[in-house]
Write a structure and sequence with these properties.
Number of domains: 3
Distance between the termini: 55 Å
Oligomer: single chain
Number of strands: 10
Order of helices and strands: HHHHHEEEHEEHHEEHHEEEHHHHHHHHH
Helix content: 40-55%
Shape: elongated
Radius of gyration: 29 Å
Strand content: 5-15%
Amino acid sequence: MNIFFYLWETGQIAMFYLSQNKRESTMKHTYTTLDYEALTCLTGDPFVDAGGFVLEELSKRNPDSDIMDLIMLATQIYVDCWDAKINTFFLNSKITQPAFNTADKKKKETERYFKELLDDTAPHVEGYCRVTGRKTNLYPAGRDNSVLSGSSTFVNFHHSFESGLMLSKEVLIRCHFLPLACEQMQGKIGVISSSNPATAAFYAKKCCSRTLYDKASNMSKGVLKNESRSPGTALFRFLDHLLSELNPTKDEQLTLYHFTNFGASPEAQVYTLPFPAFQFYRETKRPVYTDCWKKFIAAHYHKPREFKNAAYQIDQHVFLATEKKETRTLKEDEFQYWSNSIYNKLMRSQSIVKEIRKWSVKQLFDFRLLKCYLINIRHMKNETIEKIQQIADFILGHYKETDMKKVLTTLNAVKSPYMLRRFILRMVAENYQQDGDILVSVNDYVNYLFPDTSSWMETRDVLLIAIYQKLHEKHVKVEVDVDELDDEDFVDDID
């Protein structure tokens, strides 16, 4: 048998992962039937790990409490504070079951369920837990006690035609704490994880702490609400907190799980902020780039329905919205939660060069920041960028300000690699006639300006951005007639 599949079937891959990611727990050890290490160690499952982080936080705040005390603490929040409204997590659980129609009944049934788990009196089998990989007593997992675990109806979906997932009591206990590590986002639940466990713990514990604070203030009425109008914005707003409060030393990948376990249509969507985007966004936080980036981002927020007439005022960095003949000023602490097309593209690893080019026509975009983006995310060679800048310098030095409109109009109208090549060769010829240094060598042309791995459209856009920036720096304004082209207007080549 293939060793990988053997390890997977027996759960030993998860066991290996756990052995490398042990975490210390301050929890009071009361039950000899419980593997306390498995309550908090990393598993690689974002939902289970989030529940473990909450357990760490609660046990730290309640050092004299054992696991049953903490289970009932969470239960009390769900039932008494949230009115048992955790249907998006657990369907027909002891808390959400309609038959248990009083708060006392919900809490008693929950307590009985977990006591039977802890005492090993609940029906079980022996085997390997699908999450922790440890050989132990296993209990059935379903939508009533875990998130998105499937249904026993589809037995062919599970290992060995089992009736469902079989998990350890430790994992099921951790799932019980998941709601305290999440936020509501557009009618669903969001939980943020990371390739760096410290970041995942930071998010989960921050959610838990906010809930406990609200509880103490008698303000906790349900799962925490995230103000963001889109999952992408939620990820970047969390990244803001992460960079300012935790200041991670290494770049990492963030993942937002946006899900619901409610009703007949449980679903989950996964949004990822890749390593390069994380690195680039960290760069935008440098003081030298902050103002440039904030204004660029602000111009790409999608205005919500209630502010559809709002207009961005770049000088004041605010949106002005007219409501019933009255003007309302929306500052950054309000509009920063709107959906943003740039954030969405960064998450999807889609180019934002086109947007920067359009922005650069009227506004300065720091070319150093663009260079960082091109190299780290678009994988453009540094030699390519430098050559493009040299061509831009030649154009600005060769043409008079009165001729720049014609040059920019021509370059904006380029919609094929053939047309771009002809434009650059024209610059080479005019440089030759001027008896200057070699503007573009054969090596530059083949390996840097038009390599097989590069997009000619991005080369054109970067050249335009470089020209626009230099014009902005010289305070020269050139009105250009730009016929905006859709992506389908561009062609790869002309025969």
